[in-house]
Amino acid sequence: MDDAKPIWILSGRFGRATVNVTDKALVEHAHREFNILFKLGGADAAFRSENETLALDDSSLLMFNPWVPHAKLVNADSPTIILSLIIEPEWLVRVLADRAPRVDRLFPNRRETVTEDVRINANRLGAAIPQQLMRGGSDCEDLLIDLIDSVTRQYADPTLPRDIISTARPIDYRIRKAIAYIHEHALENPMIDVVAREVGLSRSRFFEQFRRCVGASPQHYIDWVRMTAATRWLSSTDRPLIELADELGFGAHSNFTRFFTQHIAVSPSDFRRNTISVEGEEPASSSPLAVAR
Known about the structure:
Layout: E1 7-12, E2 15-22, E3 26-29, E4 34-42, E5 45-49, E6 52-56, E7 60-64, E8 70-72, E9 80-87, H1 89-95, E10 111-113, H2 116-135, H3 140-155, H4 173-184, H5 192-198, H6 203-214, H7 218-236, H8 241-247, H9 253-264, H10 268-273, E11 275-277
Parallel strand pairs: 1-11
Antiparallel strand pairs: 1-2, 2-9, 3-8, 4-7, 4-9, 5-6, 5-8, 7-10
Helix pairs in contact: 2-3, 5-6, 8-9
């Protein structure tokens, strides 16, 4: 596969919006942000989530709530042009407070039919992001808000109460301790057995409790913390990649590149080269290793 396929990345307090031309597979991953995917052109693509295969084609969009695991399958044919939104829950609540309570199951279905309104807004944003990166303007956030507004109006669960401020899952004190340990030792890529031992649980019990409390597996959570640190540092510093790889605990630069590419289908160097931040803003959780649940 050609690693030089075009990619444009916009970051800000909303999270990240990416237009990517890719045929690559992505490993199964999960994160605390919403992930909304649109096909802008090219071949159809397919994703996998909890034993369900989901087609991303001209008539559909995919929506993954926080901590829902998902993976992209390798394209059988030519590349797909994908608009991928990684949306911070806090930003979504703030922008759409009248209709978007902070819930971890905002979208009841992972695949929906694209309405004409949603398609128009997705195409507008998809066309604007490459232009913004080329001219350094700041026109995209309004288009993003329009798109998120149309998506939530169309697909958010209408039965959700609108006065909820937070529906965070109850966290066992041992899992809180585990989360703190993971963030403290994230750059060391802590082993799950070690984390379980630190909080006094067997591996199986720890896995069960962690998933129940957080909504993701321990490994998905660790990977998310490390990817968050990587993307923040790549977009906000010019430190050499070999330094970042070493500080993130990967040892060899090639291991870092492989891990990063398997998660977002672009190499660290291409991510840095093709990312622009809106008005220099960082996502809502500004510290790469801040405890975020």
